[in-house]
Design goal:
single chain; Rossmann fold; 2 domains; 7 strands; globular
Length: 259
Amino acid sequence: MDLGIAGRKALVFGASKGMGRACAHRLSAEGVAVTIAARTEATLAAAAKEISEATGNPVHYVVADITKDEGRDAALAAVPAPDILINNADGAPPGDFRDWSPADWHRAIDLMMVGPIEMMRRTVDGMMERRWGRIVNIVSRSVKTPQLELGLSNGARSGLVGFSAGLARQTVRHGVTVNNLLPGVFATDAQRDHIRGMLHTTGKSFEELWEERGAKSVAGRYGEADEFGALCAFICSAHAGYICGQNILIDGAGYPGTY
């Protein structure tokens, strides 16, 4: 299927690895002019080179921290008028909420809520003026199935989802969609970091926990980043203009509810 977005411009945060990188790869393969953003130049440069070589389309990169004004400025200096914005940020490590200070909460909110909202604030009016735009926030299934040890992520990401719901109702008539993707357990570096954070409370090895977590998934396996990238590319496509204000699970049927 031709997604009808060749020639569009995309800015993809958190795209040096994992699901963000998979989204960038899929968009580039569709002929989108992709710029990837993250905090570490070495991994960004490697990702841009590898995606460019794989898709045959040049991918650019910009070192940018979504939590800081100067990072958001740098991203928009590289792509002043993106047609597609993918907001993606690392989650906070698991822990006991009794140990979290207000500063911990503020860092989590800056990373997973305020940073993405600021990027939407800076780009959505231009998209509406041009009568076309796609905003996708990579969130987590934890906003629907919260885990106590992930409280920093649950709280901050839920705030982003709530804000996005209101924004989406204002943009869709102008050709701009706003949606959230809610991944479950995927075989990514972020998942490995999450499991490492659980080692001290379980007494098990990383290998044991990794195999156990994948096997206990309803699908019997981890999701692959490319599967996520494919969904993201479709949500950004010309065919998805009537999909707006949605929280779309991609978790191998892990969510236990009907709705």
